Amino acid sequence: MGEDLSSTLVVREFDLNKDRERVEAVERSCEVGPSGKLSLFTDMLGDPICRVRHSPAFLMLVAEIGGELVGMIRGCIKTVTCGKRLSRNGKHNNTNAKHVPVYTKVAYILGLRVSPNRRRMGIGLKLVRKMETWFRDNGTEYSYMTTEKNNLASVKLFTDKCGYSKFRNPSILVNPVFAHPARVSPKVRIISLSPSEAEVLYRHHFATTEFFPRDVDSVLNNKLNLGTFLAVPNESYKSDIWLGPDLFLSDPPHSWAMVSVWNSKEVFTFELRGASRVSRTLAKTTRVVDRALPWLRLPSMPDLFRPFGFHFMYGLGGEGPEGVKMVKALCGFAHNLAMEKGCRVLATEVSPNEPLRFGIPHWKMLSGEDLWCMKRLGEDYSDGSVGDWTKSQPGMSIFVDPREV
What we know:
This protein has helices spanning 16-30, 123-137, 152-161, 195-205, 216-220, 245-250, 277-292, 323-340, and strands spanning 9-13, 39-43, 57-65, 68-87, 98-114, 142-148, 165-168, 171-176, 188-193, 225-233, 256-262, 269-273, 310-319, 345-350, 368-376. With 405 residues, it is α+β, with helices and mostly antiparallel strands. The strands form two sheets. Strands 1, 3, 4, 5, 6, 7, 8, 9, 10, 11, 13, 14 and 15 form a 13-stranded mixed beta sheet that branches. Strands 2-12 form a two-stranded antiparallel sheet. Strand 3 (57-65) and strand 4 (68-87) form a beta hairpin. The longest helix has 18 residues, at 323-340. It is globular. InterPro entries: Acyl_CoA_acyltransferase, GNAT_dom, Plant_NAT. This is N-acetyltransferase domain-containing protein. Keywords: Acyltransferase, Transferase. It comes from Glycine max.
């Protein structure tokens, strides 16, 4: 299984000035895909910790052998909802009983990389264990990671060697941003919410949803958050002006939906490589025809073979018989916002049980399924009213934090 690294491998904290270029070199070497197959390359725009730096607490570690940087890992910590319990006003009062969230401190592992010529030597395992030590030292109860469902090497490392269990399978839904605006139904009214207004609605609707961050106000006030948007049927909304979230919740329309948009374009870009000449020509042809015949509104393929940015939709939720229709209108609005900002892709991630997902347009060839694996870091935690979260059944919805995309 390779040489003994116990005396030569050094794992330490990332140093931006010393390690940035070497980290980028390892990232590039790890993203070289199989010959003849599409590979997705990521450019972090000179900031290797861009995907964790907006979290409440984060750390990046690097691994060295004889001064050669051979691997890295990133991790962050936050407090999220892991379940719910019934709360009553009064010892024997069932009339005012309601569900309230149960919070836990959870850590997220991402960006684990090991140089191709240094694999199968236990470096990845060493990095994970070192990161988990930091998690435990900071009072974290659970650790989880995400990977593509078919990334067998990553799944095997975490489930077979690191003690993680397969936990959730959210769907990644990706849609191209076309050259012409999407149609938004004139029967739907889109309301732009302030961060404080959005927080009220989110805490009311999502408080007991898995992975809902207790510091959602920090997310909504982040400079990368482009806004939160509420969709309501025109005929059911009685006022010509927005009266605020409290009045909205006291008398909501029969159907509504909301979503927030995160500007991932400012964090990193993607690029598809390895496409055949036929695929490139076909994609280019759709754009040429679309420009020549714009009134046909053809679904042309944007140029994904050069670096491109994307917007991420999160906090998707709503209620009512026309909820899917409201979501479709919001996705059209978000598409047009992405078009204005020069993005070529609009993406989101939702639970496979989410009923509102049917309103989200996406291309199957660009979309897929993630695998989330979770581990309880210690047995000395109280089971409380939730029990062991790793053994719980999935709910209808899940909140995907855009800071970790």
